[in-house]
Amino acid sequence: MVQQKYNIKFPVTELHQLAQDEAFFTLTENGKDTIIRFHDYSELYKRPGLYEQLFYQRLKCNSPSKVCDILRRVLKKNKVEMTELRVLDLGAGNGLFGEQLHSGGVARVIGVDISKEAYNACERDRPGIYDAYFVYDLCNMDEKMREELLSWRIDCLSCVAALGFGDIPEKAFANAFNLVSDSGWIAFNIKESFLLDSDTSGFSILIKSLLFSDAMEIHHLERYRHRISIDGRPLFYYAVVGKKMFSIPAHIMDKLDKP
Ligand SMILES: C[S@@+](CC[C@H](N)C(=O)[O-])C[C@H]1O[C@@H](n2cnc3c(N)ncnc32)[C@H](O)[C@@H]1O
After folding, report:
1. 123-154 b/e (C-beta count within 10 Å ≥ 16 → b)
2. Reported pTM
3. Is CATH 3.40.50.150 the right assignment for the domain spanning 63-257?
């Protein structure tokens, strides 16, 4: 497939004042400029290769390979076969992390994403990567979906480049965590600031409580450069791989329901 090359321009002023989810670029197509925000996934995904060109080529994101590599090493240390893993990939997008898992030979990989455009892009660009892909908001999981996902006997949850910043909220992540069988594996990455004491957002509180509670046994925690910002600064994330010991208890889940 010949990869289309897009004409992407980043803004030049006051970049440091933009939060990560406010960043944008100008795309010139047929002489017409369109401003697209980084988190406007429907605009990104509907153009084949634009997401990859923006985040992976220009901004040097390496998280899918990094997190998959750490997961592979942790499993090896624990004498678990990757080929036996049944993974739920939350925030699957157009399938970049699913592709890593697929080439690692996992037994099953199930995608979930809130965006129909993400699913369409995955079918278009990486067909056959997922054994099933649900366009669904796990914040409000009904019993039918819970049973459907449980029927896949998930023993690993992955969530890459999708937590926080207006992406996957804590309730969706917690619901997905609780779908994983006990002793299953959890692999995700998260911006370093979410682990600061000073961050009191619901999301930060949930992740810190998971990291420091008995619900998850941490096997690997690594700070690394997730990508660069549009003005060339490194953006550091933590990659986390752990073993689920038990589900997030009801009294904590109830609190996540409160705004
Ligand atoms: C930056 S992309 C990451 C995609 C993929 N994991 C990767 O590594 O390329 C974030 C994805 O999270 C999805 N997302 C945002 N909010 C979500 C939610 N509440 N539930 C499920 N997916 C969500 C977006 O639609 C988007 O596809």
Report:
1. eebbeebbbebbebbbbebeeebeeebeebeb
2. 0.95
3. yes
